[in-house]
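Q: For a teaching handout, I want to show students what a protein-ligand complex looks like in token form. Below are the inputs, and the small molecule is zinc ion. Please produce the holo structure.
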Amino acid sequence: MAERFWPKVAVGPDNDCWEWTACKDREGYGFIRSGGQRDPMIRAHRASWEMHFGKIPDGMLVIHQCDNPSCVNPNHLAVGTVVYSVTLPLITESTSDMSQTSSDGSRGVMSRREARAA
Ligand SMILES: [Zn+2]
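A: Here is the structure, written as tokens, with zinc ion included.
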């Protein structure tokens, strides 16, 4: 796999995106044949992950931290699920709760503003 993989990648410095230069789908994800001519095509960034870190756990996605679908730099890839983004609003809620019950100083500012308005 690696022998056919790397000639198709524009490898750069560790922190840069490594662009896939062979065939890509409409969304920009690179593709490579997983084995011989009869084997299915797999996404290049998933192939890159498996070459560096081993098998991707069932049901997990390989996510680009750099938002570049054609990038196959293992430093930019992370395994995750789509559930992550759903938890974000909950974090925002708890943060606003904390600011309400925060130090006396902030409450003092509030009451001063109220006094001015009155
Ligand atoms: Zn990248």
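A: Two things your students might notice: The chain has two domains: 2-80, 86-117. The CA atoms of residues 63 and 92 lie 23 Å apart.
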